[in-house]
């Protein structure tokens, strides 16, 4: 979701970190496959 006027900063941060962890896992798995 996007940051809007009534966004909860903590919830937005958690969402960002969750997406970052998923991306990091995908990159790590791809690197192991090479």
Automatic annotation (TrEMBL):
<dbReference type="InterPro" id="IPR005801">
    <property type="entry name" value="ADC_synthase"/>
</dbReference>
<protein>
    <submittedName>
        <fullName>Anthranilate synthase component I</fullName>
    </submittedName>
</protein>
